[in-house]
């Protein structure tokens, strides 16, 4: 399966992403989903939230609709997820296509969507970083592009607050303090303390291969 996405830095406008199946997987069921909560109902220094309110702050994307293939160009049909934004920034976050088939392994591919007025962005302008298992000295970096002096930054990894250790506090670089393992993969967020719900921060997906 392949995921095609545009407007990575324009989550505040209506857009879409596409889920393309390969020919052997055409009989799979395709769904869309938000892979992580990127807003919380409490302040940045606490975990825990009423599940209903948390889901309201992080709504799922619309269900994908099928687009028939074209005999002359691409005979395979594909699926489109329409990202309809509103004043709640519903299209900000990490979203995915999921292909399910009872006879095959489930496949999920993710994409990120950030705001065009983001003031914290990936340092290399890339939304994913790929490493191999047991790679050492793995870092994830962002840069602040706001007009003021750089404020205190905070980090979350797969929604978990990571400022209990000084290495993650007030810094623009997240450092893995051990060789990369499969449990390090996932979504890394860097945001200004107290401003996470404004959705003007960086989202980076770490992919760990091997194992």
What does this structure look like?
InterPro entries: Ig-like_fold. By secondary structure, the chain is mainly beta. 3% of the residues lie in helices and 37% in strands. The chain has one helix and 15 strands, in the order βββαββββββββββββ. It has one helix at residues 51-57, and strands at residues 2-5, 15-20, 29-34, 65-67, 78-83, 93-100, 107-113, 120-122, 128-132, 139-144, 153-157, 160-161, 173-175, 186-192, 202-209. The strands form four sheets. The chain has a five-stranded mixed β-sheet with strand order 9-15-14-11-12, with no helix packed on it. A hairpin with a 2-residue loop joins strand 11 and strand 12. The longest helix has 7 residues, at 51-57. The chain starts with a strand and ends with a strand. 30% of the residues are buried.
Notable traits:
single chain, 5-stranded mixed β-sheet, 1 helix, Ig-like_fold
